[in-house]
């Protein structure tokens, strides 16, 4: 469902202009799926050896629960990172849940390797494997501004960040750990994240080390509270999509058959999320302007993504944690003009949060550590599918059971299991497959018809399900 530009704000360029400009730039230069230019190759082509030798600054912006189809709320972000960078059309979260996803961003590993399988298990992450540790060790100045990991104790300083304003999730007058001191800060937290980031960037005028800034506002996580000035901002009308709410769910797993969210529920969630993202867009624009003023816009690698997506009553479900596209598809942008990645191109490769740490380390000239599952987006490597998975915490009857999914552009195969985790992320259960789904995404992008429902063995064979099941098993055990 296409979005519409939001109403221009006084004193700003109209949102319609931002989106139209970004779209025009992207349409004028579309990259193939063969990969982005490698830094050395781009530098050689530019004939700029001295600039090529300089390590880039690195800005990683991770929003919370932001699905795709939220372009209306972030046109300034799209103008910068889409119009002057690379738009990845197939961006995913390898585990659509906050702490596992963020741990994958930090480590470049799937959750079954880093061990943070649920939001309670954040302390299971081996901090020596994180991108911030490698960058700090390599001489980068490191900063964190906003949310870190769910269940992380606020008084515990986040390892390998030299400067930080760690948010206890909230929107107004929240508690923070600022460089080791727990305190309450007055104001809207997205604005505080912005201002702390700008102050961190300003220090580069006297500290010549390259820097890494992890910027992570709480938006658009529930309760999706907008800044006061956006509390009543009109949001374009939305009539749902075919999966909202999908009246006939007889071919779906029990938790979806019993789901009760309506189109009105989806509309309400969408409206709140979009309004909360307006301040994120303002923050990104302020950071862009600061980098330009500091002369650092060209040689800063910027990556923008969401930690996971979110459903808007798709299949009756208004949450995350499910194997349906709105929950694991996320916006994904990259810009690095000094290395030739500033031209407003699109990249159709399947990419994921596990690719962020390898990309950053590649850009910084740091050798890839053992154990990473992702790959650098600066090279030509491409995958034909992605492992996406999620684990149920506890043994309660509500919600989905643990599942794993083979996700390709044109198809998706999912298995649900008799498995659950404890608070530390340890897994128990029989592992028995309890339900399966297969969707032809080319013909059925909204995942309305589960082709395995009442399918015969011959039909499963024709769909290639045995081979998909074998590959999924291999991916899970790799």
TrEMBL record:
Q: Give the top-rank taxon of the lineage listed in the UniProt record for this protein.
A: Bacteria
Signal peptide residue numbers: 1-33
| CDD domains documented for this protein | G6S
- Outline the segment boundaries, as ranges, of region: Disordered: 223-268
Q: Which Gene3D superfamilies match?
A: Alkaline Phosphatase, subunit A (3.40.720.10)
Here the segments flagged for biased composition (Basic and acidic residues) are: 244-254
Record bears the keyword Signal:
yes
Domain Sulfatase N-terminal per the UniProt entry, residue ranges: 56-366
The answer, when asked if Signal is one of the entry's keywords, is yes
What does the UniProt keyword field contain? Signal
Q: What is this protein called?
A: Sulfatase
């Amino acid at each position: 469902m296409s979005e519409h530009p939001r109403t221009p704000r006084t004193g700003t360029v109209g949102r319609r202009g931002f989106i139209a400009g970004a779209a025009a730039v992207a349409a004028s230069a579309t990259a193939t799926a063969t990969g982005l230019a490698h830094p050395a190759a781009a530098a050689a082509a530019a004939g700029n050896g001295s600039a090529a030798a300089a390590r880039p600054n690195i800005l990683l912006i991770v929003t919370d629960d932001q699905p795709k189809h939220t372009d209306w709320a972030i046109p300034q972000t799209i103008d910068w990172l889409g119009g002057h960078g690379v738009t990845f059309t197939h961006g995913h979260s390898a585990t659509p849940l906050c702490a596992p996803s963020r741990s994958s961003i930090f480590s470049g590993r799937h959750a079954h390797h880093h061990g943070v399988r649920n939001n309670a298990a954040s302390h299971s992450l081996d901090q020596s494997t994180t991108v911030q540790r490698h960058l700090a060790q390599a001489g980068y100045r490191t900063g964190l501004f906003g949310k870190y990991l769910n269940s992380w104790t606020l008084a515990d300083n986040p390892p390998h960040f030299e400067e930080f304003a760690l948010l206890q999730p909230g929107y107004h007058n929240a508690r923070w750990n600022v460089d080791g001191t727990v305190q309450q800060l007055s104001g809207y937290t997205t604005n505080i994240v912005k201002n702390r980031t700008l102050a961190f960037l300003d220090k580069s005028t006297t500290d010549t080390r390259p820097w890494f800034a992890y910027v992570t506002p709480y938006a658009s996580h529930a309760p999706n509270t907008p800044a006061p000035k956006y509390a009543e901002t009109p949001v374009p009308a939305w009539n749902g999509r075919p999966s909202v709410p999908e009246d006939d769910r007889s071919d779906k797993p029990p938790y979806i058959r019993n789901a009760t969210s309506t189109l009105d529920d989806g509309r309400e969630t969408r409206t709140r999320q979009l309004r909360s993202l307006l301040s994120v867009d303002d923050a990104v624009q302020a950071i862009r302007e600061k980098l330009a003023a500091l002369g650092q816009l060209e040689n800063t690698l910027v990556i923008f993504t969401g930690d996971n997506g979110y459903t808007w009553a798709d299949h009756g479900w208004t949450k995350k944690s499910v194997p349906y596209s709105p929950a694991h598809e996320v916006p994904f942008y990259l810009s690095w003009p000094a290395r030739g990645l500033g031209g407003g191109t699109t990249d159709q490769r399947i990419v994921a949060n596990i690719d962020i740490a390898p990309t950053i380390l590649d850009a910084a000239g740091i050798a890839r550590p053992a154990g990473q599952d992702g790959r650098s987006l600066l090279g030509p490597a491409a995958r034909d599918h992605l492992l996406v998975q999620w684990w149920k915490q506890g043994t309660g009857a509500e919600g989905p059971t643990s599942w794993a999914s083979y996700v390709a552009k044109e198809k998706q195969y999912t298995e649900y299991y008799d498995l659950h985790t404890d608070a530390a992320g340890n897994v128990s259960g029989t592992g028995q497959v309890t339900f399966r789904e297969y969707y032809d995404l080319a013909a059925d992008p909204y995942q309305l018809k589960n082709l395995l429902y009442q399918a015969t063995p011959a039909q499963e064979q024709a769909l290639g399900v045995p081979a998909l099941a074998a590959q999924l098993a291999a991916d899970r055990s790799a």
